[in-house]
Amino acid sequence: xxxxxxxxxxxxxxxxxxxxxxxxxxxxxxxxxxxxxxxxxxxxxxxxxxxxxxxxxxxxxxxxxxxxxxxxxxxxxxxxxxxxxxxxxxxxxxxxxxxxxxxxxxxxxxxxxxxxxxxxxxxxxxxxxxxxxxxxxxxxxxxxxxxxxxxxxxxxxxxxxxxxxxxxxxxxxxxxxxxxxxxxxxxxxxxxxxxxxxxxxxxxxxxxxxxxxxxxxxxxxxxxxxxxxxxxxxxxxxxxxxxxxxxxxxxxxxxxxxxxxxxxxxxxxxxxxxxxxxxxxxxxxxxxxxxxxxxxxxxxxxxxxxxxxxxxxxxxxxxxxxxxxxxxxxxx
Length: 332
What we know:
Layout: H1 7-50, H2 57-89, H3 94-111, H4 113-127, E1 136-139, E2 142-149, E3 153-157, E4 163-167, E5 174-176, E6 182-190, H5 196-212, E7 225-232, E8 237-245, H6 250-268, E9 276-279, H7 286-295, H8 301-306, E10 315-318
Antiparallel strand pairs: 1-2, 1-5, 2-3, 3-4, 6-8, 7-8, 9-10
Helix pairs in contact: 1-2, 5-6
């Protein structure tokens, strides 16, 4: 038995089904190209309109992230549809293929539930603009700079340079520390003898000077706020202050603010409590006391007994106020 295709049949196929296959391929190619060019053009327009405006950098980054996702989605959808149409023109029955693909998709869906969950979560992260590249976030207790936002994972790099890859589906708590603006919050401890109104006035002047400084004014969005006395510590009155900054600038402004406050307090004679220890020596320290008595530095035991003072064998530590440093969440 001889199997062959006549020239007439081949010509007929080429000018019917063959031509349709070529046209489908060309149509798919041009559709993908036009979509890609349109998305790139839109992204370029957004970037040009944003210019160097720091307030619109977030929008540009978001558009860039979404553009990549849309481009990939268009490629997959168009070429998948074109492939099925080509197979049908070649005489392949695509109904069993679609049925098999549906069953395979169902099986994969059951076997890759975590993967599907991660992809869906990542899509909504990007769609809702919860986080984007360049943010400083805290995810499930881990803080870091966002280096990549993918459909499946979120990539963070902490202050020590360690990279953390977190599956999107496992993110239960996400705190964005650089969303639109930030605050540098400081707890300032002063001695109980200080006048809090005077201290507040000094802090206000320090904030005004910092805001007027051209090296820092671009990073500050609002004047320093004196929130008032927030705590009576063991040895200090704590005054809470904050200043509104651009995203990622709160730690730099906070460090400079602390430096200037220290200098201003030194100038005004305002005491900042610090740890110190008082030691009292008893009978076990006679040789030491006797040695010091010879130099006239401390009274002798006989003098103490004559004055009716009883030495004590105690050791006491005086605690100070809590640290003034603001926590940066592991990233600065």
